[in-house]
Amino acid sequence: MKQLHIPVEHTTLANGLRVVASPDHSAPFVTVGVYYQIGFRLEPRGRSGFAHLFEHMMFQGSENAGKMEHIRLINSSGGLLNGTTNYDITNYFEAVPSNALERVLWLEADRMRALKVDEENLRNQRDVVKEEVRVNVMNQPYGGFPWLDLPPVAFRNWPNAHNFYGDFADLDAATLEDVRTFFRTYYAPNNAVLLMVGDLDPSEAFAFAERYFAPIPRGPAPPRADISEPSQIEERRGEVPEPFGPLAAIAIGYTMPPRGTKDWYTAGVLDRILHGGRAGRVHRRLVLEKQIAVEAGGGADLLETNGPTQMVTRIFPKPEYSADEAIGAFDGVIIELALQGTKLEEVDPVKVKIRADYYSMLEGGMGSYMPRFGLMHYLASFTLFDGDPDRVNTILDDFLGVTPADVQSLAQKILVPGNRAIVIRRPIDKPAQTGGAR
Amino acid sequence: MSTSAAVNSNRSAAPPLSPERSVAWPKRTVRTLANGLEVVLAESHTFPKISVELFFRSGNAAVAHTSPGLAEITASVVRTGTASRTSRQIEEDLRRMGGDLGTQAGADSSAISIAGLSEFSAGLLDLLADLARNASFPENEFERERRQKLEELKIERTTPGFLASDRFRRVLFGEHPYAIITPTEEQVAAYRREQLEDFYRRHYAPANALLIAVGDFASAAMMEQIEKTFGEWSAPQPEPQFVPSPPPHAGRRVYLVHLPGAVQAQLLAGNLGVTRHDRDWYRTVLANAIYGGAFHSRLVANIREQKGYTYSPRSGLNPLRQHGYFSVHAAVRNEVVAATLTEIFYEMDRMRALPVTAEELESARNYLTGVFSLGIATQDGMLTQLSTQYLDRLPEDYLETYREKIRALTADDVLAAARRHFDSANSQIVVVGDREQVLEQAALFGHLEVFDAHGQPIQLAAS
């Protein structure tokens, strides 16, 4: 087995900003990210969608780079940029030719230090976000399935259970003062990590980081939302109407063990036994063998979350099968794993695939257009959630150490009705297609 | 010039770029085997993986007039069985090599792609060759794929983006095979297994193929392995097809696809355009980047950042092998359909009427050349670059000269390209939305026809 070693250097500035650099001179690019430890799960109660709306505001200009300037400066340096809002973090990132590293850091520091927003920007981005929600959720077949459907059914604590994209009434209620308060509360250097990956010299990169970020004052420690879930005993079920798509869609979510525990690593292997593509048990049984479903698959985002997280299976049953029949076939797969377990002949190849997928993610991870996005993303998780960016070189060992017996005992423990939630998207009855020659 | 932090003493101004580091384009090893198979290899050693793709220069366009979508379902069934492997064995063999497999067909080509850990290179190549040469088209797998395709078609007919592309391609290409992006349910129901086998026999042939491998290998050894695995393969080359060009479009016309209950309108506008072989290709690429092809482009600044009509407006060039087309898309709230179309054409006309500023020109040239070089930093990115060059039969120095060619362009080039290819007066416009909400606005932009989601015309009551 060929071992891969990723060079990692890290430091912490006096204001609490953590800084991580990973040199890689294979091509003249750098990928830079700033990750703030505030995600949609942590946004203030009654302010659904605010973390994401705020992410948009971070592109609206800062003291020395006005609206569109930030975007212009990255594009005209030959680079790409974006931001995303996730459960536990919000990230801003750029991939640029390596001669633009200093410029990127200047820009990121300027908006961390002095975001500049006004009523007009807020109105504008509120409209943009509404169109984003329409194009991704309200005007698409199966839009938001299952990531927006499952949480309100699976969880009881508002941070885990609310509408992450935001109710339009909450978006409309957001004020400029809310934006400023949120910025002051969560966008302090001591609540963030800066990552720099690619064709760079770490000591020079750290000097740039010091120069541009060190003057930003530390903020008070941000409040941490309580994201704990009360214990669950009963199976939870919900239904959501599907306005466009012709098929029912089923999502089954099991809550995963806490991050970093022995069970958590075992869950990573168990997930791939069930969901590893067409060789995974769920797809093989439901789509290839029984042919009950048009599509069945899923997985768990273990490495990038830090709180109640579900392994989610999505099933699109053929119309001649009921949802109950599809769930019954799925239960057959689950019960078989719990009762009969697995063998090395299955676990060993699954581990090879875990290793290959990990390398692929480190190399690219966001299509092929943003090199090392995945490496940056994982380094951020290991820094913010585990306090140790070097985990990038050791975490695989913990997954590869899982045994078949571990998998079976975990299956018996967590693949139970009292640890799962099921949501069914049901097509609404539509009036006949209107008009015309049909 | 030093890049030390002291250089930039004024912290209120953006630091200048430091000197550009040179871009080392991948060294290619290129050979055509005795059976006609073209092989391109490029090494990339950062991660212990390989990515390989085997292309055949025949896709859905080759069968559009007899059996639309046949290339696509052939590709789907290719991965489900060979003379010596069942579907389950194929998937398990892949997994034990850390592999990912894709089989697909577009308008112009079919492809089998395989990636995995480099320690299993030989096994991955064997599996690829087995699929390319010995696919067995099991009856039950064919029926299963056919059924899945039928269900997918029903979902596609409820997806605004798909409905827009479907109508747009029909409008632009008329009788040309590029008009059809998907089969009907009736056509899928009529496929016979023998047709798939026949397509496979005729088109999955070494003289019709291009193999590109990128990854952690030594090229000489990899070439030897490929010769060993693919050298014995022989099959006749398919006959080239001649297809007449679609006629140009005269006059703006609007096509409304009625999607009852839609809470947003999907707009798609554009016209026939250039291929990568056109003498206007590079200048049109640059004009597109300034118009709507980048985040920092005029269209995005206008209808997103100033007006808030839409989340992800974009324009693009779509170079198919025989013809290209230019397209602009935006999903907007129902109330601003007319307002958005007005801005889309205003920005096109501005590109046609006035030269772009020196700053816009410089910015867009840097954007294109920078992003082009980011492509070589991953195996998949490199494979994409190489497939563009070799599948499209571009000159051998395509990668090395792309950036110079972009950098040499002037504001006059951009103006000329916009005048020729951003043909606002003859643009074809598709609007997918609820006709109760958007019909009146759409009708302002030209002669209007209305269709349902299944492509059937809807007669409008005389007014």
The CATH homologous superfamily of the largest domain in chain A corresponds to: Metalloenzyme, LuxS/M16 peptidase-like
* CATH-defined fold name of the largest domain in chain A: Cytochrome Bc1 Complex, Chain A, domain 1
Strand order of the largest sheet of chain B: 9-10-8-11-7-12-13
* Overall number of structural domains of chain B: 2
- Structural class by helix and strand composition of chain B: alpha+beta
What is the multimeric organization of the chains shown?
heterodimer
Give the SSE order of chain B as H and E letters: EEEHHEEHHHHHEHEEHHEEHHHHHEHEE
CATH topology of the largest domain in chain B: Cytochrome Bc1 Complex, Chain A, domain 1
Could you tell me the mean pLDDT of chain A? 95
Would you report the number of β strands of chain B? 13
Q: Which two chains have the most extensive interface, and how many residues on each?
A: A-B, 104 and 100 residues
CATH class of the largest domain in chain A: Alpha Beta
